[in-house]
Amino acid sequence: MQLDATDLKILQQLQADGRISNQDLADKVFLSPSSCLRRVRMLEEGGIIHHYCAVIDAAAVGLEVDAFVQVTMRRDVEQWHENFSQALQQWPEVVGSYIITGDANYLLRVRARNLKHYSAFVLERLYKTTGVLDIRSNIVLQTLKDTQQIATSLLVATE
């Protein structure tokens, strides 16, 4: 899908406030409400806007531990990738999972109530998953930047 400068403005506004009314959005990007709504629907249907959500402050709801976990798998286990991918879908502690380059196969972002909860997750679920060879945990001490927003300056407008 080709994005123009107006599309980028719409995306920027929606990332800042996903609950903005169509009228307010149209005013901010200098479009009529009907034109604005049409563009937003095209961005949604084109897969540019994936979904809308509320961002929850994990610490405020009692999730004190934030960890990045590198997982290395044994390659001699049949269907190790499929089995691991299926297992991690059942773990609510895993809030992000990525296939990565380097020594490990996966990088997981894990949220837990406390170290006891995190330890139980690692020992009772992760280590017991067939094919897991090695786990390396990095506990977050302080978050400097954490956003899902994509800077529109990184995107190229076509005009």
Q: What would your notes on this structure say?
A:
The protein contains five helices and four strands; from the N terminus they run αααβαββαβ. With 159 residues, it is of the alpha+beta class. The protein has two domains: 5-54, Arc Repressor Mutant, subunit A; 59-139, Lrp/AsnC effector binding domain/regulation of amino acid metabolism (RAM) domain (Alpha-Beta Plaits, 2-Layer Sandwich), CATH 3.30.70. A hairpin with a 6-residue loop joins strand 2 and strand 3. The chain is elongated. The two termini are 13 Å apart.
Strand segment count: 4
Question: Which architecture name of the largest domain does CATH use?
Answer: 2-Layer Sandwich
Annotated CATH topology of the largest domain? Alpha-Beta Plaits
The chain-level structural class is alpha+beta
Give the neighbour order of strands across the main sheet.
Answer: 2-3-1-4
Q: End-to-end distance, in Å? A: 13 Å
Alpha plus pi helix count = 5
The CATH class of the largest domain: Alpha Beta
Q: Which word captures the global form?
A: elongated
Radius of gyration: 20 Å
Low-confidence runs of at least 5 consecutive residues: none
Count the domains. Answer: 2
User: Please, what is the average pLDDT?
Assistant: 95
